[in-house]
Structures are given as structure tokens and as C-alpha cells.
Amino acid sequence: MYAMWKQLKKKKQLNEISIRTFLHLLWKNGKLFSVVLKHTTPMFFPIRFYSSLCLVLILNSCNTNEIQSEEIIPEIKEEQKTSFIFEDDFSEEEKNKLENWISSTSEKAQELLGQFPFDLYYHFHREDSINQAVIFGHTARTDSINAAHFYVNPVFEAEEFSKDWMAPHEISHLALPKLPKSYMWFYEGFATYLSREVMIETGIYKREEVDSLNYARVAAVKDKFISNSFLPVVADSLISEHQYPAVYWIGASYFMEAEKQLQIKQTELNFCEVVNRFQLCCHTEKMKIEDVLNAWNEISYSTIFTDLFETYTNTPCYSLIENYK
Ligand SMILES: [Zn+2]
């Protein structure tokens, strides 16, 4: 029964099972008390009832701290509003194409990563001069506005937009609260890693392709991190030299490693599922990085995220990706 109780809690089904139901289950099968009384059945109802009650109270008191820390009551967000803002002139046909592209990417991203607990604002800027569907993108976030901007050449076919990585990347950023620039390696790594996961959902990549692509991208920047200094120092220096891919991919390797750890430690969750639950229970605008890592730990019943962060910020850089060849 204790195992069953733990299992239910682990699977987050506990909220759906009242103490009364649990009591009834115990009373009905009477298995535990049968063991105590060495199979003396049938038992009197009062004995079965009170023994069950005692057991439930004991179990409840034993787990008080754990239950309190788990009591993450999902906030039911009212319907999320999505606004499309056209900053330049676009024809109706172009507007439809761009809206469809971002709507479907945003929908797929949130199916995977959870519904973001805020309204969304997507801005479009016209960049006719460059021969590419999606030229540039960035997020713009304040306490109350969560926006993403896309600089596009709208003459390209819808297919060219849907296979581009920029929208999955920018929308993935929104699954994490805005963090200070000193954590750029972390939040860009987060969006870089998750953008590929979103692109599996949108049908652009297969799982095996993403795994080998990610691995190769990290291996390709390995020589930028042959240093005894810690990552925050090396990343700052690379950013000042505009060597962004190196910073993005060392950051992505944190999440690739976290994904491995989630599997090894049999947490029964992958990283996207952790992020998905994070939207429901915990995501607020003003979280610090420590709050985010602790929330992910709590969701995964592990210390993976803080332990790995400690490793990534306090061990010589060269050792972080020395296994990527
Ligand atoms: Zn980014």
C-alpha cells in the first residue's frame, strides 16, 4: 500500500484521489490488516475501519513535508490571447501566410512545452532586400508583455517558413522566464536545444537526426572551450567576440546532459515534460535562475538541474564537453 501511495504521488495522481477514496480502498481489500492479524478474516467493520484510518493518518504524517513541497496546484489560465502585429505593409495573402506559420509553430511548441502562462504578441517586420524567408528574430519581454519579433521576406513559399528554425527557437525562449544577460549561455542553450525538439513536433526532423545534429554541433565548437577558466568567463569573452554559435551550443550541451541524467536516474520524465509541468505549476515573470532550477528539480524529483549547473559554472571549461568527438 505504501508503495502504491508513493507511486500515486509520483505520478501526480494524488490530487485526484481523495483520502476518502484511499481509505475506502484500504477498507475494501483489508490486505494490510490481514497481514497484521495473520489472515484472520473476515474482520469486524470497526476494526477494519479504524485500522485503515490510523494507517492513512500515519502515512499522511510521515509524508507531510514531501506533500507540502509537492503541492503545486496548477493555475488554470484563462484563455490565452495571441496577437499578430504587422509593423510594415503586407498584403492580405502575406499576412495569412505569416499568421498560419506562427500560429501552427506556437501551437506545436506549447503542446510540447506547456501553455505559457501569459498572452502572446507576435510582430512581423518586412525585409524584402534579403533572399531568405526568415532573416532574423528576437524576443522582447517586460513584466506584462511577452513578444517575439520576426524579420521576414514574405514572398517565399509557406514551406520555406515552416522548415526554418527561427520561430521554434524564439518561441522556446518564452518557456523560460527572462534571465539576466550574464546567463546568456544558459537561456540561448535552452532555446537552441528546445527548438530542435519543437521541430520534431512540427515534422521537420526525426529524433535520430536531432540527436546526431546536436552532437555534431557541440563537437564543432569544442575547440573554443579548451580553457581552465569557468564557463561564465569563457562565454562572456566569446560573446564579446560575437562567437554566438559556440555559446549557444555549449549551453545546449547542458540540456543534452540533463536529458541523459533524467533517463539514467529513471525520473520517468524527459526534459520537455519537465518544462511542460513548469508552465503549469511554477512559471512566473520574475523568477531567478535558482528558482527555475529548483522548480525543475522538484518536478523531476531530482537534483539534476542544480548539480549540473554547479558543474557548468564551477569546473574548468575544457572538461564540460571533452567527450564530444
Ligand atoms: Zn535566442
Describe this structure in words.
56% of the residues lie in helices and 8% in strands. It has 325 residues and is of the alpha/beta class. It folds into three domains: 69 residues, no CATH class; 93 residues, Zincin-like (2-Layer Sandwich); 137 residues, no CATH class. A four-stranded mixed beta sheet has the order 1-2-4-3, with helices on one face. Helix 6 crosses helix 8, helix 9 packs across helix 12 and helix 10 crosses helix 12. Zinc ion (ZN) binds next to helix 8 and helix 9.
Task: List the topology elements.
Blueprint: H1 2-10, H2 19-29, H3 31-36, H4 45-62, H5 64-70, E1 82-86, H6 92-113, E2 120-126, E3 134-141, E4 146-152, H7 158-162, H8 166-173, H9 184-201, H10 207-220, H11 231-240, H12 244-264, H13 271-281, H14 289-300, H15 304-314
Parallel strand pairs: 1-2, 2-4
Antiparallel strand pairs: 3-4
Helix pairs in contact: 2-4, 6-8, 6-13, 8-9, 9-12, 10-12, 12-15, 13-14, 14-15
- Number of E-state strands: 4
Estimate the mean pLDDT confidence.
82
Instruction: Bin the helical content.
Output: 55-70%
Shape summary: globular
Q: What is the count of structural domains?
A: 3
Major beta sheet summary: 4 strands, mixed
